[in-house]
Design a protein that fits this description.
This protein is α+β, with helices and mostly antiparallel strands. It has 8 helices and 4 strands. It folds into 2 domains: about 100 residues, N-terminal domain of the delta subunit of the F1F0-ATP synthase (Peroxidase, domain 1, Orthogonal Bundle), CATH 1.10.520.20; about 70 residues. The radius of gyration is 21 Å and the shape is elongated.
């Protein structure tokens, strides 16, 4: 996984910088999402793995499947990725692009796991508090995990805040055993 991210990062950064300079972040986000979905399809993966096809033929097959969903500039990206044998990196490129876009827009998606369903009012208060703490616009997605016993686990990118009873008990057990 880390290797794919390392390989995909230069492409994602280049696409992001190009899209940002052109003011086309939203359209490129859509294009990369479509391309990533196509790259993950079984039939396309077989086509990309076919050793009898040239890089240009693979790129053309990819462009044909995407159809009108991608621009000529995106088709050029697909040709470059194909020439470098990197079409399989498209899902990772799309993820990295979205991370760069979120950083630029100062927005973050936060996943909150709770032991019980959050009320709308409490979810709004939590979003405001997290927005102030993270200095970003926060979009909260919540789910229920009854194994937490109580409290919450908040995941915002690489940041994890474990305020669950299960997490606190695990920390207490670790402290007692050391």
């Amino acid at each position: 996984m880390a290797e794919l991210t390392t390989l995909a990062r230069p492409y994602a950064k280049a696409v992001f910088e190009f899209a940002d300079a052109a003011g086309e972040l939203a359209s490129w986000s859509n294009t990369l999402a479509v391309s990533a979905a196509v790259a993950q399809q079984g039939a396309m993966q077989k086509t990309l793995a076919n050793p009898s096809l040239t890089a240009a033929q693979k790129a053309e097959a990819f462009v044909t499947v995407c159809g009108d969903e991608i621009s000529a500039k995106a088709a050029n990206l697909l040709h470059v990725l194909s020439e470098n044998k990197r079409l399989e990196l498209l899902p990772e490129i799309a993820v990295l692009f979205e991370q760069f876009k979120s950083q630029r827009e100062k927005a973050v998606d936060v996943h909150v796991e709770t032991a019980f369903e959050l009320s709308g009012d409490l979810e709004t208060k939590l979003a405001k508090a997290l927005s102030a703490k993270l200095d970003r616009e926060v979009t909260v997605q919540s789910s229920v995990d009854q194994s937490l016993l109580g409290g919450v686990v908040v995941r915002a990118g690489d940041t994890v805040i474990d305020g669950s009873v299960r997490g606190r008990l695990a920390k207490l057990a670790e402290a007692m055993n050391s």
